[in-house]
Specification:
Layout lengths: L2 H16 L5 E8 L2 E9 L15 E2 L4 H15 L26 H5 L17 H9 L15 H15 L3 H13 L5 E2 L14 E2 L4 E2 L7 H5 L9 E3 L1 H12 L3 E2 L2 E2 L3 H8 L8 H4 L3 H7 L7 E2 L16 E5 L3 E6 L4 E7 L9 H11 L1 H10 L4
Antiparallel strand pairs: 1-2, 1-13, 3-7, 4-7, 5-6, 8-9, 10-11, 11-12, 12-13
């Protein structure tokens, strides 16, 4: 790769920090199993002099869905504690309400269970009652016929994993994935002693303070911070290790956490019922409706937040606080961009589009491909 071109990519991130579009960021690029570039930019908290460093820990929000939930589910498939064609209601009996008896684990993993994008109950103080109401949520379309990105579906998947394993999701992910891979800075609910290493995200009107070291999503915070939807904190290096494990077919160093066939399944198109042509019509529609893997988003030609130059086999994931990762198997390329932009203040599509533009995620990943010499 061209070191000069990589410096140009990093300079563009710095410009966005200088212009106040994002407080801070870390960027990491790896190719062929080697880190070829990494930089830290800006501050952990907007308006302060706390510099972001390469080991700064970020709330990666929905990247949780691959770092924890989808990979943990497949680890349990490997242990024969779960089967992909098992009904969700086999593990969560209350899920059978409203005609959902036949929805499978596979449907949930591929964002095709018929569930809405979300269903929050912040006015209900009892966590068990919240889980019951979420499980009973009616479907909005026939399962398996479409794709709708669902935070609700992945929250319930985390709950399912806990029921199948007899352990909380944090323990399942830590013992089966993060610890064997040496991902020592990846965790739910970081302890107070790590606060100075953590980048703040945004102000929470619900909590009344700037969120730092707590998951920013209000529902996940109310449920204790450990869910299948959001809640994982991590560093650029740890995420790169996880991605290298994926490129290696489930192994990293001496550790094998997934079999090659499960890795292939996780990263292939699991949603033939939808087409790129019909769904890749805006950045937010790309996130919600385009073809998916298991947890992973897949590269498309127009509005992917991974840009327009990654190989057709590329897969990635974004987190709503401003975190992005993409893996390009054809080029053995990994790109990680973590920022503390924070969740958009509005659920409107324009607010999410503005976040993508402020961070420059597509420019970043296009720049990485442009830095490849061969």
């Amino acid at each position: 790769m061209s070191s000069a071109r990589l410096e140009h990519v990093f300079a563009r991130i710095q410009r966005r920090v200088t212009d106040g579009l994002i407080p801070g960021a870390t960027a990491l690029v790896a190719r062929g199993g080697v880190i070829v570039g990494q930089r830290a930019f800006g501050t952990k908290v907007a308006g302060t002099d706390e510099p972001v460093t390469l080991d700064t820990i970020f709330d990666v929000q929905s990247i949780t869905k691959v770092l924890s939930t989808a990979a943990s589910a497949l680890a349990l498939v490997q242990e024969r504690l779960i089967r992909l064609d098992d009904p969700v209601a086999q593990y969560l009996p209350e899920f059978a309400a409203n005609g959902k008896e036949e929805i499978t684990v596979h449907d949930m993993l591929r964002y095709s269970a018929g569930l809405p994008i979300d269903n929050q109950f912040l006015d209900v103080p009892d966590a068990e009652e919240v889980w019951r109401r979420m499980a009973e949520t009616p479907v909005e379309y026939a399962p398996g016929t479409s794709v709708v990105y669902s935070d609700l579906g992945y929250r319930l998947l985390g709950r399912l994993i806990e029921a199948a394993a007899g352990e909380d999701l944090d323990t399942v992910a830590r013992t089966r994935l993060w610890r064997p891979l040496g991902m020592v800075d990846t965790m739910y609910n970081p302890p107070a002693e790590l606060r100075e290493r953590i980048a703040a995200t945004g102000y929470s009107a619900h909590r009344g303070y700037l969120v730092r070291g707590e998951v920013q999503d209000e529902q996940d915070f109310a449920l204790g911070g450990v869910t299948g939807c959001d809640g994982v904190f991590s560093t650029a290096r740890d995420i790169a290790v996880f991605c290298q494990m994926m490129l290696n077919g489930g192994a990293y160093g001496p550790a094998r956490v997934l079999g090659p066939s499960l890795v292939r399944l996780m990263t292939m198109n699991n949603t033939p019922q939808v087409t790129e042509e019909a769904t890749d019509i805006s950045p937010i529609d790309n996130l919600i409706c385009t073809p998916k893997g298991l947890g992973w988003e897949l590269r498309t030609g127009c509005f992917s937040h991974g840009g327009m130059r990654l190989s057709r086999s590329a897969y990635g994931k974004m987190g709503g606080t401003g975190s992005f990762v993409w893996v390009d198997p054809a080029r053995e390329l990994i790109g990680v961009l973590l920022t503390n932009h924070g969740l958009p203040q509005s659920l409107e599509a324009s607010a999410w589009h503005q976040m993508f533009d402020s961070i420059g995620c597509t420019e970043y990943f296009d720049g990485l491909v442009n830095a490849i010499h061969d």
